Amino acid sequence: MVQIVPWAAEWAPAFETLNREWLERDFSVEPLDEALFADPVGRILEPGGAIWFALEEGRAVGTVAAIRGGPLVFEMAKMAVAPAAQGRGVGRALAEAVIAHATAAGADRVRLLTDTKLAAAVRLYERLGFRRVAGAGVTGYARGDVQMELALPPGERGTSVPRGVNKAA
């Protein structure tokens, strides 16, 4: 069984390792990636973001970050699931943790950048209610030809404890 847990220093190396695996396989590691890997606390957590890990039998098999993009916006970023754990709902559980966090923080939307090359990821995001948006801004990455956004329901914003934390996938 997979459990979704919030950032803990002991899992920090997995944030980089899991992400490097898919980046090096499908694209390349870019300067912005390196900056996030070098200082996830300063670049993601301290500005009001969050990072979660999917744990299975004491080892991290997935990770995702929620990066604050303003008072009402979070970016879902650095979603990575180990190949052996794919297809079992791990990515969905991680994405739900980001959505719950953004909702609880009072955000009105979650954005993300993905690529058509990552067809399974695009399908997951669409099933979660994300819609493609055009011209959402400069991304800072050479990769990524699909920008998506999920509008969060106003009645739920800022009222709940983030779901998905310590949730079994």
UniProtKB/TrEMBL annotation:
Domain spans labelled N-acetyltransferase: 2-153
Keyword annotations: Transferase
SUPFAM superfamilies registered for this protein in UniProt? Acyl-CoA N-acyltransferases (Nat)
Q: Is this entry keyworded Transferase?
A: yes
UniProt cross-references to InterPro entries, sorted A to Z: Acyl_CoA_acyltransferase, GNAT_dom, NAT_camello-type
Q: Name one GO molecular function term.
A: N-acetyltransferase activity
Q: Does the keyword Transferase apply?
A: yes
Checking Pfam families in the record gives: Acetyltransf_1
Q: Which PROSITE patterns match?
A: GNAT (PS51186)
Per the UniProt entry, the signal peptide is none
Q: What is this protein called?
A: Putative acetyltransferase
